[in-house]
UniProtKB/TrEMBL annotation:
The lineage of its organism: Eukaryota, Metazoa, Ecdysozoa, Nematoda, Chromadorea. It holds the Pfam family Carn_acyltransf. Coiled coil: none annotated. Keywords: Transferase. GO terms for molecular function: transferase activity. This is Choline/carnitine acyltransferase domain-containing protein. The keyword Signal does not apply. It comes from Panagrolaimus davidi. Residues 23-106 form the Choline/carnitine acyltransferase domain. It comes from the Eukaryota. SUPFAM superfamilies: CoA-dependent acyltransferases. InterPro entries: CAT-like_dom_sf (IPR023213), Cho/carn_acyl_trans (IPR039551), Cho/carn_acyl_trans_2 (IPR042231).
Length: 152
């Protein structure tokens, strides 16, 4: 599974370098997973394969995402769903997708309210892009009531 040639570049008689120690630790952890957790996962996957029509997405959602999302909860990612729907590299469009879920936008210490509906229809991503690009390009002038406290 893991294949490393770094030991070929180690000096004879010197202590093992840090990258080799890290590799050995990762190799030990991989062997531990291989002997403890993976056999039960393999059995569950085979059972799910025989009982479900779309076992891959079902397996990913139920086991990997729902049960092992602890690291996702403790990160600073606010809207992880947007990551999986990435269709562009334009930051204003991505921020528009986040606003659909969060309905607020923070830029240089100012909170901006962005309309979600326009004449009883949901605002399109292109309209969000134009609005957010205007906010990003503009110079914010926050009044005292809407300014937030920054810890610098």
């Amino acid at each position: 599974m893991l294949y490393y040639h770094g030991f070929l570049f180690e000096e004879i008689g010197k202590p093992v370098s840090l990258p080799l120690k890290i590799f050995m630790n990762v190799e030990k952890l991989a062997d531990e997973v291989k002997t403890t957790i993976s056999p039960s996962f393999q059995r569950k996957l085979w059972l799910n394969f025989f009982t479900s029509r779309n076992y891959v997405s079902h397996w990913w959602k139920e086991v990997v995402y729902m049960q092992y999302r602890n690291s996702l909860i403790h990160t600073n990612v606010g809207c992880a769903d947007v990551i999986y729907q990435k269709t562009t590299d334009i930051q204003a469009v991505l921020a528009g997708e986040v606003i659909i879920f969060r309905l607020q936008f923070l830029h240089e210490g100012c909170w901006y309210g962005v309309n979600v509906f326009n004449n009883r229809r949901l605002v399109r991503y292109a309209e969000f892009e134009k609005t957010l690009q205007a906010i990003i390009d503009g110079k914010p002038d926050p009044d005292e009531k809407k300014q937030i406290i920054r810890l610098e």
